Each structure stands twice: as structure tokens, then as C-alpha cells.
């Protein structure tokens, strides 16, 4: 078993990285080479803006290349609760922003001919307990009435037509969800951006940002110093570098994934006939899908812990055991990959994007970031050109996370709380 991301291990190499030191001047410097930063660099480069991207490690090496591979429509939280908190009109706007985000991913894939196995497959949320179906049915009613007619309620009796397991009790299908190979997409974005003139530096961690007289910036990285008129911070939940203001506003949460050996077509047809994106209805639930080469990717919050190789391996064992509980036929199936990553959680699970102290930023996608990070890269190109109204998240305040919620030692307690909620409800 490799303790590595399947997406990164099976992605082509990015060969068009900039050589030599980081130096000179760019109209825009983007900090971070995940989907937010890469998509912004691509969009700016196609608009003939000079852009330099500085990535601390490898392109898409963090959340963007370590996720569950789902590119879904729909907000991260219950729509009715969201509408109660921000108002129906704004909740509709947020929901539709996710639809636009999936469209943006598809448009980029098509326009730049990125070979990344993009396919519209739908997302199915499965009721993990009989009573969870009632909640899904209520969600269906609200969504169907207020914002999305392209959804379907799968009655418990029809579950087996969707998934080969007796552990589920109906589900809610959002038809417009998509999936793709995350590593191929990340490298494809980077190559397209480089082809249009973006300079992309890997292994160039930013250690200092300084505002100069006249509003320009001086950005210091481990590969040199560059000046820029504008800076986009696209560092996800990263704890490294000089960007504490952003770090204080998110709680990075570990999430873990295992990928099986390739499974036979017959077995996959029996278990996952429509090859959708699947999530379960528990607080500490699972997400899963089939990879382009017929493996099952099975993820979840397994343990409330941060991600490092030891922690990932422990979480992998938990995931393997609960995979066999939901799909007994897969007991004993070999696990070929196991890894973890940090999810960029905000307190209300809504993204944040805008400008702080002159620096532009977009992050905090709270586990629903594949589509939104890509979309926001494009949106931030508009915002940097003076169209702030393009940003759907512009009106949201962003106070720091209360200190206790960010502390690592609290994580197991938070985990225990949600596990108890899952047992009781
Ligand atoms: C295990 C897991 C599963 C997930 N599953 C899904 C899913 O199925 N569907 C979904 O929609 N979302 C999912 N997500 C969330 C999604 O992957 C992220 O929201 C999205 O990829 C964020 O992209 P980003 O570009 O903003 O951040 P990242 O991909 O984290 O990129 C930020 C980059 O900035 C770089 N960086 C940080 N600090 C510096 C610095 N000082 N200098 C230079 N570079 C720096 C980092 O190295 C990193 O490459 C998942 C996340 C995880 C961790």
C-alpha cells in the first residue's frame, strides 16, 4: 500500500515549471498552486495579464490533489438552515454559485482540452439510517420548490437500483454533479496557464509579503524576491508562511481516503451501476466514487486528527473496516493507496473571498472546494480587474475562529460529540 494520493501518483508530471530564481516584476503574483491559484493564473494569463504563481511544494500537491474527486452542485450545509440564517434570496444565490462552479470546471476542461476524465455523474446522498430518509425527503421538498428542479428523491425501496448495499435507506440525487481525475486536472490547469504565459514556480514557499510605497508589493520566497501590483492569496488551509490573518479564520480539519485495487466490471456494475458521487447522511459519514481505472475511492473523517503519514495509516485502517461494513463483498479487498489532507473549514462552512490589507484572497471552501476553488480563480481575476460584484461571497463578514475551536487537542472531543449525535439521531 502506498501512503500517497492516488491522484498525485497517477498524474502526469508538470514539465513547464519556471526555471531559475524568482525575480523581477509581475502585474499579479498568485501565492499557492492549488485549483484556486492555478485557475486564477490561467484566467489572468489568457487575458494577457503578466502573472507569476509561487507554490511552496508541487502543483496541486495539497487539498486539490488529495481530495475525494467529487465536483458537486449544492451548498455544504442544509439549504433550509442556510436560508434561515442568510435569507432565502441569498441562499438561492449561494446554491446557484455551486451550479455555476461546476459549469466553470466543465468550460475550462473543454476550452483548454484538459484530459482529466471529466464526466457528469450526479451526486447521491444516501440515508445511513431509515429516519434519515425523512430528513432527505424534507430537503428534497425545499430544494425542489425553491432552487433546484433537477433533483430526485430515491425511495428506500429503490435503493438497490442505485447502490449494491443493504446498509442504505433511500437517497437524494442531485443530477448535475460531476467527477474527474484531480491530478490530471491540476497538471492540465498548470500546463494551460504556462502555455498562455504564466510563470509557475514550484518549491517556492512565500515567507514574507511587504506593502511598498505606492501600493505595490514585494514578495519574498525561498526561490527569490519579486514585485507585483496585485497579490492573490490562494493558500487553502495552509499553516505555513506569513499569512496568519487568514490562518486565524479557518480550522483545518483532517479527512482521509483509501483506494482499493482495481475491481472487475461485473462487481462494479453490481455495486455502483451508475458510477455516481456518493456521500452518506451521517455527521461523520463517508464519501466514495469509482476511479477512472475501476478502483473504489472511499473517504471520510475516520478519526478527528490532523493528517501525517502515521495518522493517515491509522485512519486507513478505520476506513477499511467501515468500507467492509457497508459493502461486505469488499471485505478483504486489497487497499493500494491511503492518504489524508486538510479541509479548509470556516465556521459557517461558506467560502470567503475578497480583499484584506490590499491582498486579494479566496479560500475556506469547507470540503466543497473542487468546483468552487476553480470557479473562484476565474472570479478573482474579475475582482482584481475591478468587478467586485462578481464575487458571490463579498458581503460575508469573516471574524477569527474562536481560539478553542482551532486547537488540535479539541479535535477528538469534537469527534466524540458528532459520533454521539450519529448514534442518537
Ligand atoms: C481529504 C480531502 C477530501 C476532499 N474532498 C473533496 C471533494 O470530494 N469535493 C470537493 O469539492 N472538495 C473536496 N475537498 C476540498 C477541496 O479539495 C479544496 O477545497 C480545494 O482543493 C481547495 O483548493 P485551494 O487551491 O484553495 O487550496 P489547496 O489545494 O490547499 O492549495 C493551496 C496551495 O497553496 C500552497 N501554499 C500554502 N502556503 C504557501 C506559501 N506560504 N507559499 C507558497 N505556497 C503556499 C500549498 O502548498 C497548496 O498547494 C477535499 C479536501 C480534502 C483535504
Automatic annotation (TrEMBL):
<protein>
    <submittedName>
        <fullName>FAD dependent oxidoreductase</fullName>
    </submittedName>
</protein>
<feature type="domain" description="FAD dependent oxidoreductase">
    <location>
        <begin position="27"/>
        <end position="382"/>
    </location>
</feature>
<dbReference type="GO" id="GO:0016491">
    <property type="term" value="F:oxidoreductase activity"/>
</dbReference>
<dbReference type="InterPro" id="IPR036188">
    <property type="entry name" value="FAD/NAD-bd_sf"/>
</dbReference>
<dbReference type="InterPro" id="IPR006076">
    <property type="entry name" value="FAD-dep_OxRdtase"/>
</dbReference>
<dbReference type="GO" id="GO:0005737">
    <property type="term" value="C:cytoplasm"/>
</dbReference>
<dbReference type="Pfam" id="PF01266">
    <property type="entry name" value="DAO"/>
</dbReference>
<keyword id="KW-0560">Oxidoreductase</keyword>
Amino acid at each position: 500500500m502506498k501512503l500517497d494520493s492516488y491522484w498525485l501518483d497517477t498524474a502526469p508530471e508538470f514539465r513547464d515549471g519556471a526555471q531559475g530564481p524568482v525575480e523581477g516584476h509581475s502585474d499579479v503574483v498568485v501565492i499557492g498552486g492549488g485549483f484556486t491559484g492555478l485557475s486564477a493564473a490561467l484566467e489572468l494569463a489568457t487575458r494577457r495579464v503578466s502573472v507569476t504563481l509561487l507554490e511552496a511544494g508541487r502543483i496541486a500537491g495539497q487539498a486539490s490533489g488529495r481530495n475525494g474527486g467529487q465536483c458537486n452542485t449544492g451548498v455544504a450545509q442544509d439549504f433550509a438552515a442556510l436560508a434561515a440564517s442568510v435569507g432565502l434570496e441569498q441562499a438561492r444565490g449561494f446554491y446557484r454559485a455551486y451550479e455555476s462552479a461546476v459549469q466553470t470546471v466543465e468550460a475550462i476542461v473543454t476550452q483548454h482540452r484538459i484530459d482529466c476524465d471529466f464526466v457528469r455523474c450526479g451526486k447521491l446522498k444516501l440515508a445511513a439510517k431509515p429516519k434519515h430518509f425523512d430528513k432527505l425527503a424534507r430537503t428534497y421538498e425545499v430544494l425542489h420548490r425553491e432552487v433546484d428542479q433537477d433533483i430526485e428523491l430515491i425511495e428506500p425501496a429503490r435503493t438497490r437500483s442505485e447502490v449494491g448495499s443493504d446498509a442504505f435507506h433511500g437517497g437524494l440525487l442531485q443530477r448535475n454533479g460531476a467527477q474527474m481525475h484531480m491530478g490530471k486536472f491540476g497538471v492540465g490547469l498548470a500546463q494551460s496557464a504556462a502555455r498562455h504565459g504564466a510563470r509557475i514556480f514550484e518549491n517556492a514557499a512565500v515567507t514574507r509579503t511587504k506593502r511598498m510605497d505606492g501600493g505595490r508589493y514585494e514578495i519574498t520566497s525561498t526561490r527569490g524576491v519579486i514585485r507585483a501590483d496585485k497579490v492573490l492569496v490562494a493558500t487553502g488551509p495552509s499553516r505555513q508562511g506569513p499569512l496568519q490573518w487568514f490562518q486565524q479564520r479557518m480550522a483545518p480539519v483532517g479527512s482521509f481516503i483509501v483506494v482499493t485495487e482495481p475491481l472487475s466490471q461485473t462487481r462494479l456494475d453490481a455495486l455502483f451501476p451508475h458510477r455516481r458521487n456518493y456521500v452518506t447522511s451521517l455527521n461523520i459519514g463517508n464519501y466514495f466514487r469509482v476511479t477512472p481505472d475501476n478502483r473504489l475511492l472511499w473517504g471520510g473523517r475516520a478519526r478527528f486528527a490532523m493528517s501525517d503519514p502515521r495518522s493517515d495509516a491509522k485512519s486507513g485502517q478505520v476506513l477499511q473496516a467501515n468500507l467492509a461494513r457497508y459493502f461486505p463483498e469488499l471485505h478483504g479487498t486489497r487497499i493500494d493507496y491511503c492518504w489524508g489532507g486538510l479541509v479548509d473549514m470556516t465556521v459557517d462552512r461558506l467560502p470567503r473571498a475578497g480583499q484584506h490589507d490590499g491582498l486579494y484572497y479566496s479560500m475556506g471552501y469547507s470540503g466543497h472546494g473542487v468546483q468552487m476553488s476553480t470557479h473562484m480563480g476565474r472570479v478573482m481575476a474579475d475582482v482584481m480587474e475591478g468587478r467586485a460584484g462578481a464575487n458571490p461571497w463579498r458581503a460575508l463578514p469573516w471574524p477569527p475562529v474562536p481560539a478553542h475551536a482551532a486547537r488540535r487537542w479539541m479535535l477528538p472531543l469534537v469527534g466524540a460529540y458528532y459520533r454521539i449525535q450519529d448514534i442518537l439521531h
